[in-house]
Amino acid sequence: MSSSRVCFVLLLLSVAPLGAAEPAATNPLPAYHLQPGDVVEVSVWKETDLQKEVLIRPDGGLTFPLAGEVDARGKSVEEVRVILTDRLQKYIPTPVVTVALKGLGGNRIYVLGKVNKAGEFPFSSPLDVMQAISLAGGTTPYAAVNDIVILRRQNGKQQSFSFRYLDVARGHSLPQNIQLESGDTVVVP
């Protein structure tokens, strides 16, 4: 290889990393929202009596010594940590509070009707309608796949969403493949 080609290759190799050195854009993960049935571990640094696992009750509350009742339903782990820290400051100067999710028991969806395995399904990461049907083993041959309904209760009011399976399976009408929320029910007639 000629010396000019060697110089050109070395020049390319020295410039190539410059473009690759740009930091990649990071998208922070959405915070997990606590639900009844979840278990968190709460500990206060240097306070052995203030270290315990706490179950989030069906009403969404949890009880912690000195802090009392905390409504944890729908809050992130960080939001609960801030509430506990604020309440404990009355008794402990500058408390260092740690809250960690120990067990997922609250996020569940339900799939019923003409599917191969109807039931209750826990989930820990975002789940859409197609994935829920897959968890239920798919539809039976007699299912009315274009008449699927998703039922959701928000603020005491029942909502329903239509879902046409064949459209989504063919890559059409994708916005109807909504992300499910805890407590949603997928009905396959």
Task: Give me the Rg, rounded.
Answer: 25 Å
Structural class, by secondary structure, is alpha+beta
The structural domain count equals: 2
Q: In CATH, what is the homologous superfamily of the largest domain? A: Outer membrane lipoprotein wza domain like
- For this structure, what is the CATH class of the largest domain? Alpha Beta
Helix count equals: 4
- Give the SSE order as H and E letters: HEEEEHEEEHEEHE
CA-based shape: elongated
Number of strands: 10
Brief overview, please?
It is built from 4 helices and 10 strands. The chain is of the alpha+beta class.
Task: Characterise the protein shown here.
- The protein is of the alpha+beta class.
- Helices cover 22% and strands 31% of the residues.
- The chain folds into two domains: 65 residues, 2-Layer Sandwich (wza like fold); 81 residues, Roll (Outer membrane lipoprotein wza fold like), CATH 3.10.560.
- A hairpin with a 5-residue loop joins strand 6 and strand 7.
- The N and C termini lie far apart (72 Å).
Which helices and strands, and how do they pair?
Blueprint: H1 3-20, E1 39-44, E2 47-55, E3 61-64, E4 68-71, H2 77-88, E5 97-103, E6 108-113, E7 119-122, H3 129-135, E8 148-154, E9 157-163, H4 165-169, E10 185-188
Parallel strand pairs: 6-10
Antiparallel strand pairs: 1-2, 1-5, 3-4, 6-7, 8-9, 8-10
Essential attributes:
189 residues, alpha+beta, wza like fold, Outer membrane lipoprotein wza fold like, 2 domains, 5-stranded mixed beta sheet, 3-stranded antiparallel beta sheet, 4 helices, 10 strands, 22% helix, 31% strand
